[in-house]
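Researcher: Structure prediction, please.
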Amino acid sequence: MPQHIGIVACSAEGASLCYRTICIEGTELLGPHNHPEVSMHTHSLAQYMKCIYANDWPGVAELMLSSAEKLAKSGADFLICPDNTIHQAFDLVAHRSPRPWLHIAAEVAREANHCRYKRIAVLGTRYLMEGSVYPEKLQAAGLEYRIPTEPQRQEINRIIMDELVYGKFLPRSLAYFVDVIRNLAAQGCDSVALSCTEIPLLVTPDTSPLPTLDSTRLLARAALRKSMA
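Model: Predicted structure follows.
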C-alpha cells in the first residue's frame, strides 16, 4: 500500500493545487481514479501572517508543528508543506516533528540539476525572496540564483498577497511577472523557480520567457514517489 501523505497547508490556492496534483497524477502510478491516502490540515492564513509580519518564525514553527501532530494522529506517514515562505521555519520544525518531511526547495534544486540549469531566477513572496530558504538549498546543489530588484519584490509580494491567494489571476499581473522574468533572463538566468505555490496558477510554461520550476507540482510529485517507495 502507498504511504499516507500529510499536507501541512498554509494558503488555500497553493495547497489545493498540490492536493489536486497528487490525486490526478497518482493515477499514472496506481491506475484509474487511484492515488495515495492524503490528509490535510491548515491553520488560518491570518495566524501565519501575524507571525510573519512580526518576524516571529518560532511562532510559524509552532503552527506547522500543530498541523504535523494532527496529521500524524490521522495516520500520515510523512509530511509536505506546499508553502515556500513558511519553510523559513523548517529547521525549527524538522527535529521536533512526529513525522519526516520533504523540503520544497530541495525538490526544486533537484529538478534544476536534473535539467542542467545553472542560474535560477527565484520568485515568491518578499519574505521568501529575501530569506534563506532557496539560497541554502540552491547553493548546496551547486546552483547560482538571482532575485528581482527591491521595487519588483514589493510589487510581486503585493500581487501574491492581494490577488493570488484569493484566486485572482489578472492579465496585468501576468504581464508584470513576464517583464520581471525577462529582466532576470537578461542577467543570465536559464530558468525561473515559481517559489510561491500560487504563482504557477498565473505563470505557466507557455507564458514564461524562461523554463519554469513549478515548486508546487514538483513537491507533489516528490510526495507521490516517496509514497510508493
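Model: The domain at 5-103+217-228 is CATH 3.40.50.1860 (Rossmann fold).
Researcher: Thanks, that helps.
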